[in-house]
Each structure stands twice: as C-alpha cells, then as structure tokens.
Amino acid sequence: MRRLRACLGAAAAVTLAAAGTTALIASNASGATSALGNRWYAAAPYLMPLDNDPPDAAAIMDASGLKAFQLAFILAPNGGGCSPTWGGTAPVSGDTAVQNVISTIRAKGGDVSVSIGGYGGTKLGQACADAASTAAAYQQVITKYGLHAIDFDLEEPEYENTAAVRNEIGAAKILQQNNPGLYVSVTTAGTADGTGWFGKQMLLEAKSQGFTPNNFSIMPFDGGFNGAASQTSALTNFNAILRSTFGWDEATAYAHEGFSGMNGRSDTGEYFSQADFQTVLDYATSHNMDRFTFWSLNRDRQCSPADNGGRTSGTCSSVAQNSWDFAKYSVKFAGATPPSTTPTPTPTPTPTPTPNSCKTAWSSSSVYTAGNEVSYNKHNWKAKWWTQNEVPGASEWGPWQDEGAC
C-alpha cells in the first residue's frame, strides 16, 4: 500500500484534472524537487511552526535524525470565509514564515506534511459550502508549499457536524484524485473501544464516498488511558472497527491503521513515558501499522524548574527527558537509526509557587470573549476566543489558557 512520491523537476508544473476540478502542483518557492518515502510521512510528528514556542526544526533534525514534520494547523479565518489560514489568523496566501521553516527542513534533506483541523477553531469543512470548495481551499495549501502529504485531523467540534465531515471527507477524496501519490492520513479521537460514535460515523462517511486514505489514525489519550497497555488495547479494538466497517481482513486493516500519541502529560493528566512510546512502537511495527506519530515536537523537551512538571504544557512534556527523546521513536518507525543520547536527567524538585488571587468564577451560561478571565478548579483562566459552556482545562488546545493556580 505504500508508494514512493513521484519527483517534480525544479521547473515542473503538472496540471491534473479529476471530478471536474483542476489542480495545479508546481515547484514551490523552497526549490524542493523530490519527496521522501511514505514511511517518513507516516512517522512525522506534529510541529506548530507559529505557536507554542516553536523549536528549531534544523536542530531537531541534527539531534534526532528526524526528516519529516507534520505542520499544524490549517483552519478557516477567524472572521469567516472559505480560505486557508494558519491557526485562523495567518492567511496561507501571504505566508512567508512557515515557508521559511519548510525551506530550512528541505534544505537539510527533509520534508513536511501539513495538518488541517485539530482541536478547536473553525474548520474549512464547516465554513465552505461543499466538498469541492473545501478541496479548492486545501489545494491552495498543497500548491503553495508543493506538498506530498496532508493530514485531516477531524475532532472537536467538527466531527460532530455531519455536513462538515461530509465536506472534509469529500475534499480528501478530491485531493487524493487530483494529486496522484499524495499521502493522506485521517486522524480522529481514540477511546478504549478504538474510537467513539462520531469517529465511527466518520468512517461510515468515508465508506459511503468510496474514500480510502493511507491510514485512519486514532489518538489514544485524554480518554481515561493509563500507559501503553491501554493504548495498544485501543489499537486492537480500532482494528476490529476498521475490519467490520470496510470488510478488510486483519492485516489489511493494520496496513491502514495509525497511532497518534501525546508525549508526556496529557490534557487530562495521563502520563506517557519514553517506555510507553517504545511499547506502542513495538506493537505498531510488529503489526505492520501504517503510521506512528505524536503531539508534539513543541512539547518534546523537559519543562523548566518553574513549570514544576505538574501541569500540561504546550511547550514541554512534564516528564523527565532529554530534548527530542520522543522524536527518536518516530525516527525508528521510519526505519532509521537515531543518534545516541546521554542518560535522561533527573528533574530538580522546586517549591510550589504562591498562588495568585482568584478571578470571578467561571459560569457555564455566560458568554466569554478573547481576554476575559475567570477562575475554575483553583486556577485562573483567560479566554483565547469566543466561548460558552466549554469547561476551562478540558483540553490544552481548547478556548481557555491556564494562568496558574489561585
């Protein structure tokens, strides 16, 4: 099922037509002329290039041996409309910052996939009128960056919206047809049973449209998981769901199955160590799974003493580690040998900081806009965007930013 990417010459421009839609794949501004093998795109960890204290991609490549990155996230504009942006605020059409990151990675022999969606924000599948217009918006991203791989991260709140999921799956199918060789992954929430009701409905939508990506990946965290054993059990159960949905045998289902983990402390306080990653990696490789990735490289470093490792952070893992420890499991999945490392350091205990005074208590019935502050569960929180009845701390990537204990 895995295919190497076709090479595009430096001056090549290929015009492709399918389903009445014309797509243009051109040599991109970075001068990239070839792609990596599928195994690298399948192993690409997530990196936010504009948020969460972005690490230096070149330094990660040198230290870990990593070659592929999953850049996140493409969303609809916060102000409305059917055009691609980074994080809802930075239009792809005028971007130079992410293009520079991509150029740096490609200059060192690597490449990127781009992830669309993620938790929170407005997705293009919600904002665009239909699958064709959704696909046209994503095609702008593929063409701008000369992409060979793309990830559809379908989760809250989009995957609860039937029309939005239909648009996203339809767009994925159009992009797959219009960009031959494009590596397409679809990522969704994981549960102990494999995936929940909305995840299963998404699979049924893909079946009804006759769409088969390179893989369907689940995220077995933030759902009462406890280490690797619970994650491999969920992957086994998800394999059964794929078999029953698509009529595949076990081996075919594993060849279309992926794992997307969370390194260190999860949003809900679960902990996943390097040993857990090794166990899941062994499971993935022994079952010939198609994908092994994680959220995120921004978090693949030890927290500073001030962070105390006692909360979930977007910029560190809250577990003892060397920088880029978790990236090396992706390197192993891709089939390469990561550089050797020094022993994992022991974290230095630090005193708990004095709490701040608490803001007005959060109310489920109140409407909050960006900048509003509340208190909940003995922490102060600041709203990132408009929100109502979304519990502070339910997700690190939700509408509330943790301002610390109070």
Overall mean confidence score, pLDDT:
87
For the sheet with most strands, the description reads: 10 strands, mixed
Element-level helix/strand string: EEHEHEEEHEHHEHEHEHHEEEHEHEEEEE
Instruction: State the separation between the terminal residues, measured CA to CA.
Output: 53 Å
Helix content: 25-40%
Based on CA atoms alone, the radius of gyration comes out at 20 Å
Helical run tally: 11
Strand content: 15-25%
- Indicate the low-confidence ranges by residue numbers: 1-33, 343-354
Strand element count: 19
Structural class: alpha/beta
Any idea what the shape is? globular
Task: Please sum up the structure shown.
With 406 residues, this protein is of the alpha/beta class.
Notes on the structure:
With 406 residues, this protein is α/β, with parallel strands linked by helices. Helix content is 29%, strand content 21%. The chain has eleven helices and 19 strands. The protein has helices at 38-42, 57-64, 97-107, 124-127, 131-145, 162-178, 197-209, 228-246, 250-255, 274-286, 327-334; strands spanning 13-18, 21-26, 46-47, 68-75, 85-86, 90-91, 111-117, 149-153, 183-189, 215-219, 257-262, 264-265, 271-272, 291-295, 367-368, 373-376, 379-383, 387-388, 400-405. The strands form five sheets. Strands 3, 4, 5, 6, 7, 8, 9, 10, 11 and 14 form a ten-stranded mixed beta sheet that branches. The protein has a three-stranded antiparallel beta sheet with strand order 16-17-19, with no helix packed on it. A hairpin with a 3-residue loop joins strand 5 and strand 6 (90-91). Helix 6 crosses helix 7. It is globular. It starts with 12 loop residues before the first strand and ends with a strand. Residues 1-33 and 343-354 have low confidence and may be disordered.
